[in-house]
Amino acid sequence: MFSLLKKFGFQNRRTISSSGGHCFRLLKTLEGHRDWCTFVSYNKEGNLIVSSSTDRSLKVWNVESGECIKTLKGHTNKVNSAVFSSDGRFILSASSDKTIRVWNTESGEEEYTIDTSISDVCTMAVFSPDSKLIAAGCHDHKIKIYNAETKALIGELEGHEEMINSCFFNSDGSLIVSASADKTVRVWDTKSMECVCVLRGHSGYVWSAVFACNDRYIVSASTDRSIKIWDYNSGECVKVLKGHKGWVRFASASEDFSLIVSTSLDNTIKIWNTESGECIQTIEDNKDWVYAAVFSPDGKHIASASRDREIHIYGLK
């Protein structure tokens, strides 16, 4: 897959263009990972960031100082995702070593490991909002649901026909949205463990899908170079955002749903006005593919993770 994408011939540009309205500028570049940065997320307070990398480590960063305050080691293969629990006490990571690991944020020590080897590579793992459940998307086309306290596997969500690229809970933990290489987005009920909605419309792999706007909408990103906004209740695609010149790797919305941020293998980050569907800013200061970008809880900052080994923090001008 990676050799195929080299044909785009992306350039290493260092400019930021904006069409007006909101404008984010680079505030900090966080360096320390020795290989690709695969994912990044904020804690609830927005003062910490955790990043994952193909260097097999996770790093916890102080947002204000830009300093790495903890490096978490233990995985034996690349780490594909890292997220905080809702209370910020724990960090959950998913790895190609076929394990999920839970870490103590304060000490940096590993709390426990869940071996998913029976399920193949784990691409993403997330806590439910109450931190009682863990959902893990795997290459075997399934999402595994674990009890976070007992570590027991309590269910498997089956229906996708290709590997799972992402999975996220909604705001109350009653639903999970998943994105797959089978070109679909699925929504699952966490009590019945049944699929309650299938969203079809992308013509390529769906790399990510997240709930937005109090779970009224779902935002998805695809190798077809588009971002789609779906009305969850109707299952209809209500807007398509186009402008990236390479595969779109990740897309997520601000808390107030006024903006969407997307990342791409065209080395750019784009900011979109949700209402108009217009791209209002293109950030071009990454030297390589950008894998993920997320808004801070207050919507005033964006953190991104890139193949150039850097984490960038942007703030509103």
What is the topology?
Elements: H1 2-5, E1 15-18, E2 24-31, E3 37-42, E4 48-53, E5 57-62, E6 68-73, E7 79-84, E8 90-95, E9 99-104, E10 110-115, E11 122-127, E12 133-138, E13 143-147, E14 153-157, E15 164-169, E16 175-180, E17 184-189, E18 195-200, E19 206-212, E20 217-222, E21 226-231, E22 236-242, E23 248-253, E24 259-264, E25 269-273, E26 279-284, E27 290-295, E28 301-306, E29 310-316
Antiparallel strand pairs: 1-26, 2-29, 3-4, 4-5, 5-6, 7-8, 8-9, 9-10, 11-12, 12-13, 13-14, 15-16, 16-17, 17-18, 19-20, 20-21, 21-22, 23-24, 24-25, 25-26, 27-28, 28-29
Structure summary, number of beta strands? 29
Gross geometry = globular
The level 1 CATH classification is Mainly Beta
By DSSP (H or I, 4+ residues per run), the number of helices equals 1
> What is the correct CATH architecture?
7 Propeller
Q: What's the domain count?
A: 1
Strand % is over 45%
Describe the structure in brief.
The protein has one helix at 2-5, and strands at residues 15-18, 24-31, 37-42, 48-53, 57-62, 68-73, 79-84, 90-95, 99-104, 110-115, 122-127, 133-138, 143-147, 153-157, 164-169, 175-180, 184-189, 195-200, 206-212, 217-222, 226-231, 236-242, 248-253, 259-264, 269-273, 279-284, 290-295, 301-306, 310-316.
